[in-house]
Amino acid sequence: MIERYSYPEMKKIWEDKNKYETWLKVELLACEAMFASGRMDEDTLTFIQKNAKYSIKRIEEIEKVTRHDVLAFTTAVGEHLESFSSYFHQGLTSSDVLDTSLAIRLKQSAEIIIKDLEQVLHVIREKALEHKNTVMIGRTHGVHAEPITFGFKLINWYSEMTRNMERMKIAMEDISYGKISGAVGTFAHIEPFTEEYICSKLGLKPAAVSNQILQRDRHASYLTVLAIIGSSLEKFATEIRGMQRTEIYEAEEQFAKGQKGSSAMPHKRNPIICERICGLSRVLRANALVAMENINLWQERDISHSSAERVIIPDSAILMDYMLKKFAILIEKLNVYTENMKKNLETTRGLIYSQRVMLKLTTKGLSREQAYRIVQGISMKVWKGDTDFKSLLLKNKEARDYLNEEEINECFDYNNYLQHIDYIFSRVLG
User: Fold this and answer.
1) 92 pLDDT exceeds 80?
2) What is the pLDDT of residues 102-120, one digit of tens each?
3) Which of 67, 2, 99, 92 is nearest to 297 (CA)?
4) Which among 104, 108, 90 is positioned nearest to 27, based on CA atoms?
5) Which one, of 38, 37, 51, 36, lies nearest residue 84 by Cα?
6) Buried-state track 106-132, b at ≥16 Cβ within 10 A, e below 16
7) Does domain 351-411 have CATH number 3.90.1490.10?
8) Which CATH superfamily does the domain covering 94-253+263-344 fall into?
9) Which of 151, 86, 110 lies closest to 338, judged by CA?
10) Band of the pLDDT at 1, cuts 50, 70, 90?
């Protein structure tokens, strides 16, 4: 488990203490169901509820011998139940306890992740509204394209994270299923009522059908959603890294007082949180692939999935919580350099207005191909020299046959490109 990235609330979910407490809750509810169905008297239930306890140290001692974690747990508890231990774990198989317990903890984790997503959405929204009209250059293929606003870039991120929120809620719903159906899922030694009773008490739904385990497509779906969210965060973090490049320097991670960027170069201010998010997203995707491979098990079940899940599930939940919390802080405290955005907008000396000039020419009776040829010819001269696009356009006889000076000047107003920003924001935010 990646302890170094744990926040306390998420960490507690995946600690042994919570795992065993959840196991015990499942087992005691099974006893309650036996009582409710008339297979256990009240005195027996009361005794078991009062005396069912364990120590983690004792479980570990027994597991060294049994090499089976659930048997070590039931033995440790049974030592306190005297003759009534025969009722404890009666008719259950290990995976009844393991998978139902895992569903509870995955649901608990999802609830935290959803809270994290809410916070991320809030900070992106606020930053997007703040910079709705902060003009900057839009880039395609890493090359200057046409003007946008920084808020426009952020509202796109907000929309993507809204979809991720919907995916996470669906994943939580999909994982909130338990199974108490016995060794191969046929209820041969336990009544279906027990499964329904336990699941309802735990806030889960009984799986419509299971074999010895809950089917692993559920877990693969859950971890895939985490990987998708991580990939979105990686995309956003990569964009910030690009904007922090010295030659661009339009946005920057907050550099805290006393922070050091390099052991060798005192001037360095590196995007370390963004780079960390990018690195950890790779772990989430790798874990999701393992979860998909866990879907394929022999017959009614083997345990090839079990060892992998002990790593990939806690690690993915913990990393997702960490990455979302870090990203929320990153956006909230992001340094935005609006003057550099304006300066970079002019770097190509007006070439970013080429499409508008071309379209203006087509309104004068030229074909698109003719207009493209004229504008591209002028544009290539700008790339090769120091002259700006507008000056060359004003001097170009072929272009001036169709466009007067006022019409050309109108093409070079970046506000033409931003006229629908309010509409886009209203469509996203409602």
Assistant:
1) yes
2) 999 999 999 999 999 999 9
3) 99
4) 90
5) 51
6) bbbbbebbeebbebbbebbbebbeebb
7) no
8) Fumarase/aspartase (Central domain) (1.20.200.10)
9) 151
10) low
For 277-326, write each residue's pLDDT tens digit. 999 999 999 999 999 999 999 898 888 888 899 999 999 999 999 999 99
Assess whether 262 carries a catalytic annotation.
yes
- C-alpha to C-alpha distance for 120 and 353, rounded to whole angstroms: 35
Whole-angstrom distance, CA of residue 18 vs CA of residue 12: 7
| Token code pair at residue 273 | 């949180």
Output the pLDDT for position 263. 76
Mean predicted confidence (pLDDT) in 337-341: 97
* Contact (Cβ atoms closer than 8 angstroms) between residue 278 and residue 326: no
> What is the C-alpha to C-alpha distance for residues 73 and 326, in angstroms, rounded to an integer?
37
d(CA 419, CA 149) in angstroms, rounded, equals 11
Q: What are the boundaries of each domain within the chain?
A: 3-87, 94-253+263-344, 351-411
Dump pLDDT digits (tens) for 47-65: 999 999 999 999 999 999 9
- CATH number belonging to domain 3-87: 1.10.275.10
* Cβ(335)–Cβ(253) below 8 Å: yes
Which of helix, strand or coil describes residue 19?
helix
Buried b (16+ CB within 10 A) or exposed e, 371-383: bbebbeebbeebe
Q: Residue range 365-386: average pLDDT?
A: 92
Tokens 């780079």, residue located:
275
Report residue 267 as tokens.
Answer: 């001037």
pLDDT of residue 256: 75
For residue 40, what are the CA distances in angstroms to 25, 32, 35, 177?
Answer: 17, 8, 4, 26
Q: Is 95 a catalytic residue?
A: no
Q: Which of 37, 55, 86, 262 is catalytic?
A: 262
Q: DSSP labels for 303-331?
A: SHHHHHHHHHHHHHHHHHHHHHHHHHHHH
Mean pLDDT, range 213-233, rounded to an integer: 96
pTM above 0.85, yes or no: yes
